[in-house]
Each structure stands twice: as structure tokens, then as C-alpha cells.
Amino acid sequence: xxxxxxxxxxxxxxxxxxxxxxxxxxxxxxxxxxxxxxxxxxxxxxxxxxxxxxxxxxxxxxxxxxxxxxxxxxxxxxxxxxxxxxxxxxxxxxxxxxxxxxxxxxxxxxxxxxxxxxxxxxxxxxxxxxxxxxxxxxxxxxxxxxxxxxxxxxxxxxxxxxxxxxxxxxxxxxxxxxxxxxxxxxxxxxxxxxxxxxxxxxxxxxxxxxxxxxxxxxxxxxxxxxxxxxxxxxxxxxxxxxxxxxxxxxxxx
Length: 253
Ligand SMILES: C[S@@+](CC[C@H](N)C(=O)[O-])C[C@H]1O[C@@H](n2cnc3c(N)ncnc32)[C@H](O)[C@@H]1O
What we know:
Number of strands: 9
Number of domains: 2
Helix content: 25-40%
Largest sheet: 7 strands, mixed
CATH superfamily of the largest domain: Vaccinia Virus protein VP39
Distance between the termini: 31 Å
Strand content: 15-25%
Shape: globular
Order of helices and strands: EEHHEHEHEHEHEHEE
Bound molecules: S-adenosylmethionine
Structural class: alpha/beta
CATH architecture of the largest domain: 3-Layer(aba) Sandwich
CATH topology of the largest domain: Rossmann fold
Number of helices: 7
């Protein structure tokens, strides 16, 4: 299970974040060199009573290279998903996203639901074994199906707060089995039909494998074309790490 350690940064000027900056050893260019020096910069404090304070910390750590895009995704989900909600994991893989979602929807009455799917038997087995032993696991419904068919597994009329795609291949699995632009597009279209107002479609896109860049271009193109009166679409991307995963959020107004 991915543990999220949220570090908050109290009081501007009283607590500091240490940042390593590169310094020039041989050339006049100060931006590309191998030695580092440490300077201490003040780090603003999130408002204690802000509902977004945890997210602010994760975002700051992402910006400074200390948190991964997956951790940002989970943090954003946490601010959208409520106990008892229905959510969809469109690519359950090894089950880490499914487990994170289960923790978000899990409620005393067990009315929360995670509809999770994958086309690979190995992925479903890995997800099942990750959930094994949890009494809340009955809230997870696993399906051996393509995400383009998500409307066939999510009961009609249910309010879906989150649909999450984590694209590419199964980590530790067969790298030739990857999500494909054509079915990802169908899956995204289905997601736009089932996600409720105030809900989110979260897209984690990997570009380092064959076909990944084309898939990313499709995802970005689809998100860019959604009507602005119904959708707010944005992305987080590391500009100088061209193979880093790109995170997109499609938020239903
Ligand atoms: C990057 S992994 C997902 C990681 C997962 N979310 C986790 O937390 O471990 C991508 C997964 O997408 C699955 N996949 C590929 N094509 C799919 C499709 N059309 N529908 C559903 N899952 C698919 C792969 O089998 C693989 O397990």
C-alpha cells in the first residue's frame, strides 16, 4: 500500500524547506552543473483550517520533485471522494489505486463501492491478493473487462464521483500488454457519460513505452475538446523530464 506522508510547513519564516541548488563549478552558466549548495528558503504555511491544506503540501512536494504524480492524484481524489461514494478504477493493475479508493469510500455501512477492472487475469489476481484480509474488500467489485465497457458493470443511475485511469503496462508484468488509444478513448467517452457533476476523471499517462506518446496525444486532444461549460480540464507535466508521467484531470462542473 502506498503510504502518503504529508509534511506541512508551519509559519512563513519559522520553518524552512531545504532546497539543493546546482552551482557552477567551471562555466559561467549557472543552470547546468554538477555541484550543489544548500540554501534555505522560507516555505509558506497552508492555512490550518483550509480543507486543501494536505493537497497544498503534496503539490509543493511534487513541484520540488519530492512527490510523484500518483501521490498528487491520490491527494486530489481525497478532496473529491467522500465516504459511501461510488468510484471506478478503470485499470486496476496491481491494485494500489483500488486500495487507495477503497480507503476513501469505505464507510461503516459498507455502502461505498469501487468498481475496478482490468483485461489481465494477473492484474485481477494481484488486486485481489492486495485486498485479501480486508473486511472492507466486499465494497470492491472486480471485473475482467475492458474499460470501454465500464457502463456495463457500473449500475445505471449511480452517482460516480471518480473514474481513474492509470495507463500503460502492468508494473512487474507483461510489458507488451498495454492500454491502447482506441479503447482508452472509448473508456474516456464512457467515463464522461457516467461521472457526476462535481466528479473527476483522472488520467495518469505514461509516455516512455512504445505507443505511450500517441496515447497521451489522444488523451490530451480528447480533454482539450470537452465543452468548457461542462468541463474543466488541466494537466500536470514535468517539463525537463520528458518521460515522466503526465497527470490530467477532467473535472465535471
Ligand atoms: C499502469 S497499470 C495500472 C496500475 C494500477 N492502477 C495500480 O495501482 O497498480 C495499467 C493496467 O491497465 C490494464 N489495461 C490495459 N488495457 C486495458 C483495458 N482496455 N481495459 C482495462 N484495463 C486495461 C493493464 O492490464 C494494466 O494492468
